[in-house]
Design goal:
The chain is α/β, with parallel strands linked by helices. It has eight helices and seven strands. Helices cover 40% and strands 14% of the residues. It has a seven-stranded mixed sheet with strand order 3-2-1-4-5-7-6, with helices on both faces. Strand 4, helix 7 and strand 5 form a beta-alpha-beta unit.
Length: 227
């Protein structure tokens, strides 16, 4: 099953991911699972920097050619969404539509340039939440999850969120989730219930402001771990 739930976030940069999860030098020394992360320059540039990053998503069950075919439509959809909803985005993070499209395309070019080799080296996996069977307990130091949880989706209940977060905390010592708003840029209504459910099961939880903001009000992440 291919969810492709985060199509208009394809093409994010390595720096975008660093900023949205507030990753510092200590974090980047850990093995990182980019969970449900859409195609970006994060994994190839992390590998180039000697960092250990594995990206998993149902997207990576497709071959390179099938993914490349989607890019023109994805870029058109992305610019259409931004153009139709200017109040939901931070203009300084986008620039002109042409500039933004060129940035996305450049990051996707980096992704596709090494995709086949990186896939052969198990840097991409088709595993998808809420079950990550291919990964062992605390195989990673950190799991990050972007543009998947806390969206307005009737199937994404409190229980579903907790299952996903617990699974990430099974395979990593800590997980971080971004953003914490729905498609309308309003705070996710389900967030307080998810936090309480996690705390009731003994997890430590922190909401932390970050320096990245593309969608208006989408400038915080959730950290979850067990002491």
């Amino acid at each position: 099953m291919e969810l492709f739930t985060n199509l208009y976030f394809w093409g994010e940069s390595y720096e975008n991911v660093i900023n949205m999860f507030d990753l510092d030098e200590h974090d980047l020394k850990k093995s990182i699972l980019d969970c449900m992360g859409p195609p970006s320059s994060f994994t190839p540039l992390a590998r180039k920097a000697g960092q250990k990053v594995v990206s998993c998503s149902d997207v990576y069950g497709s071959n390179k050619e099938a993914l490349e075919e989607k890019v023109p439509d994805i870029l058109r959809q992305t610019l259409s969404i931004i153009g139709d909803n200017p109040g939901r985005f931070v203009g300084s993070a986008i620039g002109t539509p042409k500039e933004y499209s060129e940035k996305l395309k450049a990051n996707l070019d980096l992704f596709f340039k090494t995709y086949d080799d990186d896939f052969k080296q198990d840097l991409y996996s088709p595993e998808a939440l809420p079950v990550l069977n291919d990964f062992n307990v605390h195989e990673f130091g950190l799991a990050i999850c972007r543009h998947f949880l806390f969206k307005e989706n009737a199937n994404f209940t409190v229980d579903f969120h907790v299952r996903c977060i617990k699974e990430m905390c099974r395979v990593a010592k800590e997980c971080r989730i971004f953003p914490l708003v729905g498609a309308n840029s309003e705070p996710a209504k389900i967030l307080p219930e998810v936090i309480k459910a996690l705390q009731d099961e003994g997890f430590d939880v922190e909401v932390r402001k970050v320096s990245y903001e593309l969608r208006r009000n989408a400038n915080a992440m959730l950290r979850v771990w067990k002491s």
